[in-house]
User: Which sequence fits this backbone?
């Protein structure tokens, strides 16, 4: 005999293959266990309920002991089932409870970071589970001023979003603005970019408002620097807001070395950044538009290395740059077992063949190699990608205006980056002012 | 603190931008010996004006020049600031054109000047449209990019120095003080933008003083490098003394043929930022006085400036017009600080008197 509520729930989930309603006899009364097999470990959960039932005399006491959330309405029961909880309804339907069950293990345990490789530092990385991620932060940052706000965002599905900040450090006005924005989210947040768009229009900009990191130590450091950290469930990254230019050049790991060494590391990253932006453009400018800049012997050397090459310097460079970006993308997508083969084919065979076939000059191969290496010297995969993108406009300007084009392109890039702000915090600022700090 | 460093950087960049192209020629025309006297006198005059300006502005905390004029009355704002804005348009366009000519002669002798002009204009207008914050932030990075090149220029040129080219004389009494061109020099040193920013940050005189010292030293180097290399008699015949002195340098171990390339790169950074500051000033003035969105004003006026720069036919006329424009600029440089100071002194005195009653 199933009561009205159970029937209602059953009809709601009638087309779900993994939905179950189990009848259990406890103290001579029947109770219904309802949930999803894929989310709830049914056998263990049954055992758990029975164990608690054995220590309680009545069904009512059992319900009270199982959970705080008892006797809720049908809506909440359905929500509970969807969230992966076990719903228990008594025979007459008058009593019910939403129980945290023994869950099916769908999560991988804490593993090492995949996209970042910290040196001389803790190697834990964030995982998919939002609560585990926040736990990892709490464990390392044991302070009462660490604040945690929960949001459920989205239209079709409600996705969990957590905001972490340190009270008294992060400016209150910033937190209020972010809070208002998050509460007003109407669309689904599927990707980091969906969330990014909520913080202001930057659809065509390569620079994100959020800096994604896998490392708890880096997220904690951001919190201490008066920033906000977001966690999205099923997203193994801490999303640091706002993203600053400095994040690309400075990592907390650097500070594990003596300060002179960390200064050196940062200096090399700056060189890497500038080299990625202007080296290909400089090659085009110096070879095709302004060869007179070099001293005679150097100019002759450059001319000689390009002897017999049919392509113009611009075409040659753009072909190589695109090819290299393709190889980099391909290596990311390919299975690990094929990756090294592609690297070899792309790097050695193709490079060598192109030089021998006189399609590109030796000098260009050196320049391109330097650029690829340099572009990876900055911190964060997305930062590396965006500076790889920014080199193209400069390259085009260089082919038109020579060294002038390189110079204008570089200055324009600086101005563009300087014009970016997230909630009035400039992208090029060094640090965010503490709450109450005088401007 | 950062903001003040940014303002100092803009201050130095604007002075350098005007300084490199026209400043030496004017100095060589003014005097044949003791050039340092002219530079020092001009810089001191400027320092006095800055002091007066700052004093005047400090009477009105958190207000900029336009607010103060509007306080005097709308008519005062219209009478003083409209001609100033028009003058700024001319200054910006001619400044851009002059730099374009120099840049062409260094980098791209075969490229038509309009192509480079349009490119420079586009970027300056873009920067101006993005607002003061962008200008100030990019100023720091452009400063870091430009100053090493300035230092490189100064040091690399020292290989060609001939000390005997310059006689460090004393020229008394300083007759040049009465010449019109001496005041024209002021027109190239635009410190007026300080009054347009003051609403955001309280400026301190001593920090500007440090920037002023740097500007003075750089002015000395700009004038004396061609003098050391060529001597006064040759220098007066040259069109761009600094450019030609850079072209004359030949360092055997250096892999680049022409030091002038670095000079050109430096000029590009300077002109873009200077023009964007000028456009931004125009936009701010017009928005506050005539109540219309600043970005429309900037777009419209920069277009006019572009047309002016395009129609000037040749370099001789260009220099003539530029001199006139800077004459007008010099007029405003004296008139605006003094009116602000007098009005501040007068109104503040009134308030104090009122309080006593």
Assistant:
């Amino acid at each position: 005999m199933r009561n009205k509520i159970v029937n209602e729930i059953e009809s709601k989930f009638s087309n779900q293959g993994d939905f179950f309603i189990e009848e259990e006899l406890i103290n001579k009364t029947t109770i219904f266990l309802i949930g999803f097999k894929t989310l709830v470990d049914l056998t263990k959960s049954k055992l758990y309920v029975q164990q608690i039932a054995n220590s309680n005399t009545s069904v009512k006491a059992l319900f009270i002991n199982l959970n705080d959330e008892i006797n809720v309405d049908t809506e909440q029961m359905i929500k509970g089932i969807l969230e992966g909880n076990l719903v228990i309804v008594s025979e007459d339907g008058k009593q019910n409870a939403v129980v945290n069950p023994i869950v099916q293990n769908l999560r991988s345990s804490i593993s090492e970071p995949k996209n970042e490789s910290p040196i001389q530092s803790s190697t834990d990385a964030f995982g998919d589970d939002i609560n585990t991620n926040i736990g990892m932060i709490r464990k390392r940052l044991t302070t009462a001023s660490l604040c945690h706000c929960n949001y459920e965002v989205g239209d079709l599905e409600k996705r969990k979003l957590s905001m972490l900040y340190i009270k008294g450090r992060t400016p209150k006005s910033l937190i209020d603005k972010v809070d208002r924005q998050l509460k007003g989210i109407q669309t689904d947040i599927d990707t980091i970019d969906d969330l990014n768009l909520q913080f202001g229009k930057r659809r065509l900009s390569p620079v994100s408002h959020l800096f994604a990191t896998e490392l708890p130590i880096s997220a904690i450091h951001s919190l201490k620097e008066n920033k906000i950290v977001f966690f999205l469930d099923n997203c193994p990254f801490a999303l640091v807001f706002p993203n600053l230019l400095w994040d690309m050049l400075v990592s907390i790991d650097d500070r594990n070395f003596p300060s002179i060494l960390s200064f050196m590391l940062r200096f090399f990253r700056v060189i890497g950044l500038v080299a990625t932006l202007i080296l290909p453009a400089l090659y085009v400018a110096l070879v095709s538009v302004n060869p007179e800049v070099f001293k005679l012997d150097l100019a002759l050397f450059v001319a000689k290395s390009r002897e017999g090459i049919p392509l113009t310097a611009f075409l040659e460079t753009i072909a190589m740059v695109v090819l290299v970006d393709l190889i980099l993308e391909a290596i990311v997508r390919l299975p690990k077992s094929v990756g090294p083969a592609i690297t070899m084919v792309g790097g050695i065979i193709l490079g060598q063949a192109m030089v021998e076939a006189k399609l590109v000059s030796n000098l260009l191969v050196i320049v391109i190699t330097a650029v690829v290496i340099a572009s990876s010297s900055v911190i964060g995969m997305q930062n590396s990608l965006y500076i790889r993108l920014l080199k193209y406009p400069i390259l085009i300007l260089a082919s038109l205006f020579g060294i002038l084009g390189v110079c204008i392109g570089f200055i324009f890039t600086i101005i563009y980056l300087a014009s970016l702000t997230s909630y009035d915090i400039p992208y090029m600022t060094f640090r965010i002012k503490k709450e109450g700090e005088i401007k | 603190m950062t903001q003040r460093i940014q303002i100092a950087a803009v201050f130095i960049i604007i002075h350098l931008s005007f300084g490199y192209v026209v400043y030496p020629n004017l100095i060589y025309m003014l005097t044949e010996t003791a050039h340092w006297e002219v530079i020092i006198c001009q810089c001191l005059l400027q320092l006095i004006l800055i002091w007066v300006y700052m004093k005047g502005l400090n009477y009105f905390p958190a207000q900029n020049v336009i607010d103060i004029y509007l306080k005097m009355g709308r008519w005062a704002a219209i009478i003083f600031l409209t001609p100033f804005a028009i003058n700024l348009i001319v200054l910006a366009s001619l400044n851009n054109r002059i730099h374009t000519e120099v840049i062409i002669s260094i980098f791209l002798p075969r490229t038509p000047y309009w192509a480079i002009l349009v490119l420079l204009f586009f970027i300056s207008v873009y920067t101006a449209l993005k607002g003061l914050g962008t200008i100030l932030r990019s100023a720091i990075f452009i400063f870091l990019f430009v100053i090493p090149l300035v230092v490189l220029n100064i040091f690399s040129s020292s290989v060609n120095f001939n000390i005997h080219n310059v006689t460090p004389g004393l020229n008394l009494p300083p007759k040049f003080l009465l010449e019109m061109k001496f005041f024209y020099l002021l027109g190239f040193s635009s410190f007026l933008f300080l009054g347009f920013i003051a609403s955001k940050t309280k400026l301190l005189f001593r920090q500007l003083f440090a920037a002023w010292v740097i500007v003075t030293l750089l002015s000395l180097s700009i004038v004396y490098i061609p003098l050391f290399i060529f001597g006064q008699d040759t220098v007066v015949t040259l069109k761009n003394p600094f450019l030609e002195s850079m072209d004359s340098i030949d360092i055997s171990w250096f892999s680049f043929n022409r030091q002038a390339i670095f000079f050109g790169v430096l000029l590009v950074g300077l002109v873009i930022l200077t023009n964007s500051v000028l456009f931004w000033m125009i936009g701010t003035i017009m928005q506050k006085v005539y109540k219309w969105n600043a970005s429309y004003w900037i777009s419209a006026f920069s277009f006019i400036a572009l047309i002016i720069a395009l129609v000037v036919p040749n370099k001789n006329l260009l220099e003539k017009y530029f001199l006139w424009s800077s004459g007008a600029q010099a007029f405003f440089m004296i008139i605006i600080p003094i009116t602000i100071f007098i009005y501040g002194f007068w109104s503040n005195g009134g308030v104090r008197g009122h309080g006593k009653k």
Summary: The radius of gyration of chain A is 29 Å. Chain A has three domains: 4-99, 130-242, 254-422. The mean pLDDT of chain A is 82. Chain A has 16 helices and eleven strands.
